[in-house]
Amino acid sequence: MSTVVADAHDAHDEHHDHKPTGIKRWIFTTNHKDIGTLYLWFSFIMFLLGGSFALMIRMELFQPGMQVIDPHFFNQMTTMHGVIMVFGAVMPAFTGLANWMVPLMIGAPDMALPRMNNWSFWILPVAFLIMLSSMFVPGGGPAFGWTFYAPLSTTYSADSTALFVFAMHIMGMSSIMGAINVIVTIMNMRAPGMTYMKMPLFVWTWFITAFLLIAVMPVLAGVVTMVLTDKFFGTSFFAAAGGGDPVLFQHLFWFFGHPEVYIMILPSFGIVSAIIPAFARKPLFGYASMVYATASIAGLSFLVWAHHMFTTGMPTVASLMFMYMTMLIAVPTGVKVFNWVSTMWRGAMTFETPMLFAIAFVILFTIGGLSGIMLAITPVDYQYHDTYFVVAHFHYVLVSGAVFSIMAAAYYWLPKWSGVMYDEGLAKLHFWCSLISVNILFFPMHFVGLAGMPRRYPDYALQFADINAIVSVGGFLFGFSQLIFLAVVLKCAMKKGEKAPAKPWEGAEGLEWTVPSPAPYHTFDTPPEVK
Amino acid sequence: MSTEHNPTKYYVPDQSIWPIIGAIALGLIAFGAGHYTIEYSKEEAGFGHYVLGAGLLVLVIMLVGWFGDQIRESRAGLYNTQLGQSYRQGMLWFIFSEVMFFLAFFGALFYARMIAVPWLGGAGNNEMTGEIIWPTFEAIWPLTTTPDGTTTEAMGWFGLPLLNTIILVISSVTLHFAHHALEVGKRGTLKTWLFITIALGLVFLFFQGYEYYHAYHDLGLTLQSGIYGNTFFLLTGFHGLHVTLGAILLIVMFGRVLAGHFDKDNQFAFMAAAWYWHFVDVVWICLFVFVYIL
């Protein structure tokens, strides 16, 4: 193998834009742009798969009564939809964006640990193959919701739980390694002059997200391990008969789970903070306050987990503490929304697709945030808990929040990635179809939720029928609208479109726009000087 | 450090086959372990353990190959100071993630002791739980009788656990001496202290194994003996696995020291293994206090 060293040596002196070709390029790659592309495509495929599972759910719920699928399969669909969207679609999309953009934004030649980067990506499809294969084990796949509450996942679960647990372990390893890579890249690979307070907000938000990931993914690993031993090896962490407590599961899970939901939104804040100034042609209002707000949201995220558990019979003092801490998060979040709106104030705005998605993000995410404040109120949550109101809330922040920001990012940086401008007409069509259908899909859920319709049931009372029919129609419209997005991306991938200049957006700022479009295979071999 | 490389230029490593082999290994391990767990719990014969074994084998091949490449490249002077810095930071963040992993199990222990068990005994507003469901249950820690009547004996802290604590603390000190010897270039002293450290680690593992035997055969303390046995075995068990990994790392380092690797300026792997060992030591001290003594 000593030849490898020699080869590596020669390879480095000879060339700089040599790209390995064929399948080997993608399998063995250590290039941050290749790995970013892999992450983004993987996430898109998972998004479509998880979305098709959601359509199964909406198909069943179109009418009351049992229609298309049996309840056990329905439960598998809700579980797999959640797991795939959280761990397969949103998180890898952000990691893909970080891979592509963080080195470009800080003037680094690549990620700090390029080989580990390859490993963190390729174990992800492996994990999802195992996760999906669990649906074919006798007894059926995981059917306990993506939150896999004990005792549903222990006493009452199918054999496939073992595969669920080990697949989760691999996903966790992938996230931890990815996060270590991002955080080390940011700490160690910034170009000279790129001080912390000059970093683009996307880099800042990912820096904090990476910290959250490293802190909480191991807790998830711990809790899935306890589920495994409880189910298969006779422990009783979550069984009262052995001195444990099912509520302990919820504490451990949500200690991971709440920071996890911020893991899925903080990078969005970074994306939107890049796009709004670019199209408002004004510098971001309150850069420093954005950084501090992000950090305080992350800090508070460790102290609010039990707001998911108000109905478990916690002592009132604890409930009140978690309620107040949760409400406190509205302050830094409000700072952010205020800053975005102030950035647009009197800006010379234009409304290209990235900007449309970013503005939709600000408005719809705020709706999701406000319903979050309603849910944070302990006594009121006794009514909302486990209803469609909760479903509406987290889909507003995750779909019209996180997913919209990912789409905004994709449109914003597609010219940089592919070298061609995307089809603006199709993109606008995609935006308007998505915007309208996402609201038909999720807004009425608030009403059925307040009226008492519980989540995760394949059937419901007749009084909820008309709204559920509307919601299902919205679901299918939203799902099929995403095929327009696929078409836009494929056109770019096939280089069909106007050639993009290095900086296609007039008001855009940052080092990524100083390199040509498409970005060369190797960029910033020698670090740029940042003034 | 190589002089032929421009220090202002970053080192970007070339393609490598090892990550994808590692991905295959993890896939086989997870798939095999999942199926083996199912087969084990149903006492059925199956293919799980073969897949798991194959996965572990591929993993070992990958680790040897990948670390081998790293060592060769490092010896060839391809790495610059900045990459060394990235490795160090990466290792520290990895150790931080390990801390959080143990925190999950310590969290379970604290919750069980401070909240779950007292509540089962009727503390707070849970009086009826005790009265109606398990009237004879007594909330004590260590929980030697569970609500459903499983009994066990508690593991004392005096004797073997105390001895093991002393052994592990001393091993951290001897490793520090070894590291110091490396810094000042005393290779002989380095080898001696490193050897002593590894020996202490292995003695610790032997005693830990003996303690498990004692627990199962004399005390009736098993993985199935309720929350006390659960937290005891998962905490000490995961710690034991970490000591095992740490000992393997140190043995590899010993081999590299014998081969003449490492000096004052080029010692990342040694340092990382040492950090890991100290971390494992700190976890043990927390374990000794919270699992054994209190």
Task: Please give a structural write-up.
- The complex is a heterodimer of chains A (531) and B (294).
- With 531 residues, chain A is an all-alpha fold.
- Chain A has 2 domains: 31-246, Cytochrome c oxidase-like, subunit I domain (Cytochrome C Oxidase, Chain A); 265-518, Cytochrome c oxidase-like, subunit I domain (Cytochrome C Oxidase, Chain A), CATH 1.20.210.
- Chain A is 67% helix and 0% strand.
- Chain A contains 16 helices and no strands.
- In chain A, α7 packs antiparallel against α9 (266-280).
- Chain A is globular.
- With 294 residues, chain B is mostly helical.
- The longest helix of chain B is centred in the middle third of the chain and has 40 residues, at 81-120.
- The radius of gyration of chain B is 23 Å and the shape is globular.
- Mean pLDDT of chain B is 92; it is low at 1-7.
- The chains are: A mainly alpha (531), B mainly alpha (294).
- The interface between A and B is large, with 89 and 76 residues.
Sum this structure up briefly.
The complex is a heterodimer of chains A (531) and B (294). Chain A is mainly α. Chain A has helices at 2-14, 22-27, 32-60, 71-106, 114-133, 161-188, 201-232, 246-263, 266-280, 287-300, 316-344, 353-376, 378-384, 388-418, 424-450, 465-493.
Which helices and strands occur, and which strands form pairs?
The complex is a heterodimer of chains A (531) and B (294).
Chain A: H1 2-14, H2 22-27, H3 32-60, H4 71-106, H5 114-133, H6 161-188, H7 201-232, H8 246-263, H9 266-280, H10 287-300, H11 316-344, H12 353-376, H13 378-384, H14 388-418, H15 424-450, H16 465-493
Chain B: H1 18-42, H2 48-75, H3 81-120, H4 127-133, H5 160-184, H6 187-219, H7 226-258, H8 268-293
Helix pairs in contact in B: 1-2, 3-7, 3-8, 5-6, 5-8, 6-7, 7-8
Mean pLDDT of chain A: 94
How many strands in all of chain B? 0
Q: Which segments of chain A are poorly predicted (pLDDT under 50) over 5 or more consecutive residues?
A: 1-15
Taken in chain order, the helices and strands of chain B follow as HHHHHHHH
End-to-end Cα distance of chain A: 43 Å
Gap between N and C termini of chain B: 50 Å
Helix content bin of chain B: over 70%
CATH fold description of the largest domain in chain A: Cytochrome C Oxidase, Chain A
Q: How many DSSP E strands of chain A?
A: 0
Which blocks of ≥5 consecutive residues of chain B have pLDDT under 50? 1-7
Rg of chain A, please? 23 Å
User: Helix tally of chain A?
Assistant: 16
The helix content of chain A is: 55-70%
